Amino acid sequence: MGAGVVLTGLLMSQFRSHRRAQLALDGRPVAIWGANGAGKTNILEAVSLLSPGRGLRRAGAEELARRPEAVGWKIAADLAPAEPGPVREVETGAEPGQPRWVRIDAKAAPQAALARLLRVVWLVPSMDRLWIEAAEGRRRFLDRLTLSFEPAHAEAVLAYEKAMRERNRLLKDMVRDPAWYRAVEAQMAAEGAAIQRHRADAVARLMAGQAGAATAFPAAELALTAPEGEADPQGAEALAQVFAEGRARDMAAGRTLAGPHRADLAAVFAAKGVPAGQCSTGEQKALLISLVLANVRALRAAGGAGPLVLLDEVAAHLDAGRRAALYDEICALGVQALMTGTGAELFATLGARAQGIEVTETGGLSAIAERDVP
């Protein structure tokens, strides 16, 4: 299980700006610095693809190949168990015009199987506006945290979305015979109820993970909500009923208008009683980091290991005090984190507690070198 593994090796071949790059990691936090456009985020993106989905940039397989070559790309990783045991080998990649493939220990595997090997969560600069933009991004953020608690969440989401696509095709084709809908709606209801359970459990664990934390990062009151004025059916029976009763309305819209794919994550800055969307930019970023730290604590409280954490341009919108507090928290929790920034000085308070990597770029080609964190 992903509860106790460490990323010890990473190889990128023809991936983004990296023609061929290899990292050896020892489990300490990793500080990655370099100029904008040097290829720092590409390293984090490669690691994010060791989990189900399209990674931290949500890119298609064809977008990940290095240009101008546009040949097949590959990522390979070694996952060492926290306790004595065999190292697991994970590979993923794609050939031109082909979908992404996954191999675990040299055997083909579905993407969903990755969730059972390695837990990964991330924050990227585009998420700094998470609390003031559309609900879709917040759902993805919550689902990534949920996946760290319940690996089966990936299968439930994929099955629900597949069934919903089938239902939406029936709606667009103006199919009115109820018999065509029953089976697909029953599957949507069953998988949707599982998604709801997983998310609710994750929210409860995150709230508990924040409780009593002595940290520079604010706590958030969390709640799962539906869009204003829309139905919020809970459980398989209620979902099935809403799907059946909503066929006419959904047919007019050409899509399914109610269900867990419409859920939202609401957050309130607990100490101030202010909704996250009304907080300052720095407070919004601090709330996001607080939830990632709560995720780690909750996993530890359950007897597991924290997820691998990817923090892109982590220093943005954080003052020096909160930045130092974040590094102290990561080290105290023992979580493996890969963090990027434009200069080594942003990681100075980490010192020897972290590995240092400098990324440079020449003529569109990235190069990496291990450095001491000053």
Report on this structure:
The protein has 374 residues and is of the alpha/beta class. The chain has a domain at 130-292: RecF/RecN/SMC, N-terminal domain (Glutathione S-transferase Yfyf (Class Pi), Chain A, domain 2, Up-down Bundle), CATH 1.20.1050. The protein is 34% helix and 23% strand. The chain contains eight helices and 15 strands. It has helices spanning 40-48, 135-149, 153-172, 179-210, 236-245, 247-253, 281-301, 320-333; strands spanning 5-15, 18-24, 30-33, 73-81, 88-94, 101-104, 107-108, 120-123, 220-225, 264-269, 274-275, 308-311, 337-341, 355-362, 365-371. The strands form three sheets. Strands 2-1-4-5-6-7 form a six-stranded antiparallel β-sheet, covered by helices on one side. Strands 8-12-13-3-14-15 form a six-stranded mixed β-sheet, with helices on both faces. A hairpin with a 4-residue loop joins strand 10 and strand 11 (274-275). Helix 4 crosses helix 5 and helix 7 runs parallel beside helix 8. The two termini are 35 Å apart. The mean pLDDT is 92.
Give a summary of the structure in a few sentences.
The protein has 374 residues and is an alpha/beta fold. It has helices at 40-48, 135-149, 153-172, 179-210, 236-245, 247-253, 281-301, 320-333, and strands at residues 5-15, 18-24, 30-33, 73-81, 88-94, 101-104, 107-108, 120-123, 220-225, 264-269, 274-275, 308-311, 337-341, 355-362, 365-371.
